[in-house]
Amino acid sequence: MTRPQFTFRPNLQKEDHRRAWEILQAVPERQKSAFLVQAILFRENENPVRQTCSEASPSANNKREEASRESLETLLRRILREELSSVSPQAADETEVPREMMNFLSTLAG
């Protein structure tokens, strides 16, 4: 059985293609296939994409953007939870607001 073959022909006029080419060139010669396999599987696990950007419909782009937004939101929530868990809550000072301060604020409100 012959092994399948894939030819990668980046368009170096495009920034993302140029960056991908630079990354691939940094991979040792006998490790490029393994690198590409890992990159593809990682991408599939992180953000499944079945079409290229030029083939994707606007609704597919919107879905991808929404998934990316949700992923970012999830990450931010996790980070905030971790950070807030290390902070001990302090009781709010329940002293009364001085009358002078209230008068001042009422003059600002007009």
Describe the structure.
60% of the residues lie in helices and 0% in strands. The protein is mainly α and 110 residues long. Among the domains are: 7-46, no CATH class; 55-85. The relative contact order is 0.04.
Could you list the spans in which at least 5 consecutive residues all have pLDDT below 50? none
Mean pLDDT: 79
Q: Quote the beta fraction.
A: under 5%
Helix content: 55-70%
Structural class: mainly alpha
How many angstroms separate the termini?
A: 84 Å
Shape: elongated
**Could you give the order of the helices and strands?**
HHHH
Cα-atom radius of gyration? 27 Å
Task: Kindly report the oligomeric state of this protein.
Answer: single chain
Number of strands: 0
Helical segment count: 4
Largest sheet: none
Question: How would you describe this structure in keywords?
Answer:
single chain; 110 residues; mainly alpha
Write the layout of secondary structure elements.
Elements (H helix, E strand, L loop, with lengths): L14 H12 L5 H15 L11 H28 L13 H11 L1
Report a brief summary of the structure.
The chain has four helices and no strands.
